[in-house]
Design goal:
The protein is of the alpha/beta class. It contains 13 helices and eight strands. Helix 2 crosses helix 4 and helix 10 crosses helix 11. The protein starts with 6 loop residues before the first strand and ends in a 12-residue tail after the last helix.
Length: 317
C-alpha cells in the first residue's frame, strides 16, 4: 500500500523502520515522535531502548542562564558553540571537548543535569522534544540555518566517514534523494525548519535568535556581535572581532584535528580523515550536484518551503 512505511527486525531493538533504498543503502534508525534517529552503539545505550535517552530530555531540569543552540545537522552548530563559549568566558580559549558532550541526544537527562553552569547546550531536536523548562523558564535559544544544498553535501560527507552501522554506503545521488524525502537521521530539513517555526510561534515569549551560516561566513564579526547582544553580554567590539578571528574555519579545523576529545563513541572510519570541519564553503554544492539533480532539488525544496519565509544564500556574495 502506498505511503505505508516498511520495517525490518533488529535483533536488539525489535521492529525498526526500513530506510533502505532499492540498492539496499540506508540508515540504521529508530523512529520517535515522527523523527528518525541513529541507533547508538550498545556501549552508550547500556541495555536501554534507543528512544529512552531522547524521552529523558523532556524531563531535564534547566538553569535560568542555560543557552541552547538548535540546528539541523551540519548547519554550523560546532562553530556557533565555540563562539558562544568564548563570549561567555571572555577568553579566546577553544573548547577541548566536542559539542556532542553538550548535546541533548547524546547525553540525555542525567548527562545534562551533571554539567556545571554556565551551560551551552546544543541539539538537532525539534522544540517539542526539548525540556519542558525551555518554555517555562524562557531559556535563550539560537537557531542556526544553512542553505539546504550545502547542508546536504556536508551531511553526506559526514555520514560516509562514520563506521558501520551508522555510516552511509550509498553514493551522493542516493543520499540527496534520502535528504529530500526525509529518510535520514533527524528527518527532512524542510520539515525541521517548518516545525521549528510553528513550535516557536506557539511559544511567543520564548527568546530566540535566528542565525544563518552564510552570514557568519561572510561577516563573522557582525554575527558574533549579534550573538553577544542577544545573550546580554557586555562584549566589546574588539573582543567580538577577536572571537570571530579565533573561530575562523581554518583555525577551527586545526583545533578539531589537534586537540578535540571527549567523544563517547568512535566517530570516524579508520583512514577516512574524518573531521567535523571539511570545507565550510558557501556554494560547494556546485561540485556535487549535476544540473538535473540541482533542478530536481530546487523543485521539491521550493514546493515544500513555499511561503515559509526562510531565505538562503547559495553562492558567495
Amino acid at each position: 500500500m502506498a505511503g505505508v512505511e516498511k520495517s525490518l527486525q533488529d535483533p536488539n531493538h525489535g521492529e525498526l523502520p526500513d530506510l533502505r533504498n532499492s540498492k539496499g543503502h540506508g540508515f540504521h534508525c529508530y523512529k520517535h515522535d515522527g523523527v528518525y534517529f541513529f541507533v547508538l552503539p550498545p556501549q552508550m545505550l547500556k541495555g536501554a531502548h534507543p528512544a529512552d535517552r531522547i524521552k529523558s530530555v523532556k524531563k531535564a531540569q534547566l538553569k535560568d542562564d542555560d543557552i541552547i543552540i538548535c540546528a539541523y545537522p551540519k548547519c554550523g552548530t560546532h562553530w556557533l558553540w565555540e563562539v558562544i563559549e568564548m563570549l561567555i568566558s571572555g577568553t579566546l580559549q577553544h573548547q577541548k571537548d566536542v559539542k556532542e558532550t553538550r548535546m541533548f541526544e547524546f547525553i540525555g537527562k542525567d548527562g545534562m543535569e551533571a554539567l556545571p553552569p554556565r551551560r551551552v547546550f546544543n541539539t538537532h531536536l525539534p522544540l517539542r522534544m526539548l525540556p519542558k523548562q525551555v518554555v517555562e523558564k524562557k531559556i535563550k535559544c539560537i537557531q542556526i540555518m544553512r542553505n539546504p544544498k550545502d547542508a546536504c553535501v556536508s551531511f553526506f560527507n559526514h555520514c560516509k566517514n562514520i563506521p558501520k552501522p551508522l555510516g552511509y554506503e550509498g553514493d551522493f545521488a542516493e543520499f540527496a534523494e534520502a535528504f529530500l524525502t526525509g529518510k535520514i537521521p533527524f528527518g527532512s530539513y524542510s520539515t525541521y525548519l517548518q516545525t521549528w517555526k510553528d513550535e516557536v510561534a506557539a511559544a511567543p515569549e520564548l527568546p530566540t535568535l535566528d542565525m544563518y551560516y552564510e552570514d557568519m561566513k561572510m561577516d563573522p564579526a557582525t554575527s558574533v556581535k549579534k550573538v553577544a547582544r542577544f545573550l546580554g553580554l557586555a562584549s566589546s567590539d574588539k573582543f567580538c572581532e577577536d572571537v570571530a578571528d579565533a573561530c575562523s574555519f581554518t583555525k577551527m579545523k586545526k583545533v578539531d584535528q589537534e586537540m578535540k576529545s571527549g567523544l563517547p563513541m568512535k566517530m570516524w572510519e579508520d583512514g577516512s580523515g574524518g573531521t567535523f570541519y571539511r570545507k565550510g564553503e558557501i556554494g560547494d554544492w556546485k561540485n556535487w550536484f549535476t544540473v538535473a539533480q540541482s533542478e530536481r532539488f530546487d523543485q521539491l525544496w521550493n514546493k515544500k518551503m513555499k511561503d515559509s519565509g526562510f531565505e538562503f544564500t547559495y553562492t558567495p556574495v
